[in-house]
Amino acid sequence: MRRFEWIDGIDVSDLELPVRQTPDSAGYDLCALHDVTLAPARVTLVPTGVRARMRAGEFLALYARSSLAIRYGLFLANGVGVIDADYADNPSNHGHIMIPLLHFGEKDIRIARKERIAQGVFTAFLLTDDDSPKTQKRVGGFGSTL
After folding, report:
1. How many CB atoms are closer than 10 A to CB 20?
2. Average model confidence (pLDDT) for the chain?
3. Structural domain spans, the chain
């Protein structure tokens, strides 16, 4: 059940779900859902229009594409994004993956619809021997695991 899905109600007629570019690529390229202008010294959430489904014991690690830093002076604001397996059913945003980009340049930068902006790598994780998670369900988006 590891896959990407479109968020309902979004025009994706000219887009494709995230794909790997080569057989040896670890990351699935995520694209901007629409044109976005990024102001200098600010964080901008760039929507992708997709959610990720994965098995228990996995997460989707999000990394900025290296070309963003080289061409635009853009970085992931949180370094590495972590999309938990239960994020896809988040009632506040339906699991919509948003990419928080920080712009270090001096002029506005425009990201075009369909431009590849991040890579998602499905990753397994380990638990401590005495792991005892809280039983609450996720009810929010960014920074809101309750």
Report:
1. 14
2. 92
3. 3-10+26-124
CATH for 3-10+26-124 is 2.70.40.10
The whole-angstrom separation of Cα 11 and Cα 63 is 25
- For residue 85, what pLDDT is reported? 95
Q: Is the pLDDT of residue 30 over 70?
A: yes
Tokens of 118: 């991040």
**According to the model, what pLDDT value does residue 146 have?**
47
* Residues facing residue 22 across a β-bridge: none
Binning the chain into helix, strand and coil, the percentages to the nearest 5 are 10, 35, 55
Nearest residue to 99 via CA among 38, 46, 50: 46
pLDDT digits (tens, 9 = 90+) for 32-68: 999 999 999 999 999 999 999 999 999 999 999 989 9
DSSP state, residue 7: P
